[in-house]
Amino acid sequence: MLASTVTTMQDNSAHGEDSFLTKDLGDGEFLDVVLDGVTGHGGAQASTELKEALDGGVLNNPEDVVKLLSEMNADFFSVGAGRFLLTTVSAVLGRGDKLQIISAGDSPVFLIKKDGYQKLSGHAGGFLHVGVARAIGASEQLGAPAQVEITPSLGDRILLATDGITDNMTIEELADAVRNAATPEEAAAAIEATIKERLQEGRVPETIGVRFRYDDRTGIIRFF
After folding, report:
1. Rounded Cα gap, residues 80 and 84, in angstroms
2. Cα dihedral sign for 157, 93, 137, 8?
3. What is the pLDDT along the chain (224 residues), one digit of tens a residue?
4. Mind listing the domains of the chain with CATH numbers?
5. Beta bridge partners of 146
6. What one-character-per-residue DSSP string does 23-46 give?
């Protein structure tokens, strides 16, 4: 696995239902996860319990991740019957020379390169919550999570974000902030500055809805 540096960002003041995990697995390998608990449906408990399960799990490959998500889905559904204990999850597992992206729900993962970007999973922007139908705990059997495998190159950058970020900045703005930064911390600061300015104004670009959406926001930025 390529050497990398990582930073996290979170403002959980809106609902307190986002969680995140960034775990060093040794030898440059890692697990990065963002979780967006569904507001009003036990989201804080669900996102926290799933984060703890991922942190404590032995996850050597994407099949291990999917197995754990399926087990947690069954546990959540047995208690909440699809109406309580709901959370989305997007994970990047770095093993060997590959990145495995596993996603259930609408929190996007972006690959940002010097000359462009690619959305690897999830929905970004606006008020669509189709992803909630695929959230952990929403159905008795977990539908197959979205999975993508890539081989990162030197200079590549990965952004995981919940919708408190992507509802208030365009994909292009996020990609530019990450691409133009010298460090992950600098990228996070640029994103936070833009969102705080828009929060004060109460407005966002028309392409993502005009009105600022006040929500928990969580991000993980990793530079290779």
Report:
1. 4
2. negative
3. 999 999 999 999 999 999 999 999 999 999 999 999 999 999 999 999 999 999 999 999 999 999 999 999 999 999 999 999 999 999 999 999 999 999 998 899 999 999 999 999 865 443 334 344 579 999 999 989 999 999 999 999 999 999 999 999 999 999 999 999 999 999 999 999 999 999 999 999 988 889 999 999 999 999 99
4. 5-223 (3.60.40.10)
5. 103
6. EEEETTEEEEEEEEEPTTTTHHHH
Neighbouring residues of 78: CB distance < 8 A, sequence distance ≥ 6? none
Nearest to 218 by CA among 59, 26, 32, 41: 32
Residues 216 and 14: their CA atoms lie apart, in Å, by 5
H or E stretch including 109?
A: strand 109-113
| 128 token code pair | 């669509």
- 113 within 8 A of 132, measured Cβ to Cβ: no
- Residue 98 token pair: 């590959």
pTM assigned to the model: 0.94
Element (H, E) at 190: helix 184-201
The whole-angstrom separation of Cα 144 and Cα 171 is: 26
